[in-house]
Amino acid sequence: MRASGVRYLLGQGVENIWKNRMMAFASFCVLMISLLLVGISVLFFINITSMVGGLEDKNEVIIYLQEDTTDMEISDLYGQLSRMDNIAEVTFYSKEESFEDLKSSMSDYEMLFDSLGDDNPLIDAYRIRVADISRMDETLAQIGALEHIEHVRAPLDLVQILTELRRIITMVCGVIILALIIISIVIIANTTKASVFSRRAEIQIMKYVGATNAFIRFPFFVEGMITGLLAGVGALAVTWLGYDAMIDLLTQETTFMSIFGMTSIVPFEDAVMPVTIAYLGAGTLFGALGTVFAIRKHLNV
Amino acid sequence: MIEMRDVSVVYSGGVDALHHVNLRINDGDFAFVVGPSGAGKSTMIKLILKEINPSSGSIFVNGYNLNKLRRRRIPALRRTIGFVFQDFRLIPSMTVYENIAFVMRVIDAPPKYIKKRVSYVINLVGLSDKARNYPNELSGGEMQRVAIARALVNDPQLIIADEPTGNIDPEMSYEIVELLQSINEIGTTILMVTHEHNLVRQFGGRIININQGQIVFDEIVGGNLINES
Questions:
Q1: Helices and strands, number each (H, E), in chain A
Q2: Structural domain that includes position B223
Q3: What integer is the mean pLDDT of A14-38?
Q4: Distance CA B53, CA A49 (A)
Q5: CATH T-level topology, domain A61-154
Q6: Which chain A residues are closer than 8 Å to B103 by Cβ?
Q7: Pick from B51, B103, B107: which is nearest to A301 by CB?
Q8: Contact A209 B110 (CB under 8 A)
Q9: What total number of domains does chain B contain?
Q10: Residue B123 lies in a domain
Q11: How high is the ipTM of this complex?
Q12: Whether B192 and B95 share a structural domain
């Protein structure tokens, strides 16, 4: 095809948006709302997961050491714990520190502690934080295999609750997102079908005068792509503004912040690249493919 | 040239639309195809455009053996045929000029040639002053002339006009047939489907009468108008 032909078809694609502006606007709105539904659900899922992650990060396992463990052995143990891949943080908690903390937490019983004199009945310990709590059992087994361990205290109830919570959230969000994707595809397909149906005579004339299917599809493809791209830009703008407004609201909510911590909310700037690519990519793809699939039926003339 | 050899069409519902039809229309012919509704006229057109395939028999159109023509070659066949619809089928969002020019763009004609040729055919159908008008600003007769110009612009070997006078007043109908005849005089084969017997009687020429899927009459008859002139 000559360059003037390609320019003509590209021009037709752009021109058709204006000529069929009502249907194009309907497609734009449907695409944007579909993208928003899916996009917001994904962002909600990311944040919920991050919040659960914030709670998980608060896990603490205390490893009590045997009373006769030497300083050298305590130091060796630190090395061994630090090298374990699922341990994110290791802090030594000496029996002196532990005793002081106990005294300060039980200040009413000062007499009792005084009667002990220099005797400290407590033992040295390591406080560790596990990176992935779903692998808690495996990590505890590794710790249990080490020498000089008296016993280990792990927040198994919390682990169980959080693991279950994460599983349920992933499942529920997964189902919702999948359902929204399917609903969006159905709505997009129907809107583009309606848009194409209103121009079936045009397609039929082209077929009768000997236009190839590619020639007929191309302007529709361009038109769908541009509408989809604009819908992606619209969805991105709405999400960005809405998301920032939501973060502003939540940061003012002190109770929420004290439970989950500020770091558990994913700032939009962190997600802007994947969100932009997903919105623009999905918008363009659905817009273009939706139109091309919708005209398929009308090409059988 | 159109040639049908022992062509039958039976639709999936068992309807016998065409029954052992033999027909030959030579290059440069002008033929009326007449017959009542459901006689098989539309089926015949669909076969010529390869919109459907025959259940049996062979069809040759403008040098193409339609029985062997691959799907992707159908556009090439259709570029040798101009088609005029009863309801004009002009694109409402395009001007008269654009409606005609776009069929030349379909065949990837050079822009300069498109300009020259479209102006020529618009002039030929007598609508030079309406080139910038939109279809809704034209009368029925004018719209049909645009449709004929569109069918003619790619210089096809054959023009099929399917009830071209069905939606216009009788006076205008004569003008349309006269226009088709003048196109025929420059060498284009014309196949005009109609059920307006008065019109056919007036003009005369080759008349192919189809009834119940069979050709019941195929003769050249003298028309009143032709006799008068």
A1: 11, 4
A2: 1-80+157-229
A3: 86
A4: 60
A5: Alpha-Beta Plaits (3.30.70)
A6: 209
A7: B51
A8: no
A9: 2
A10: yes
A11: 0.81
A12: no
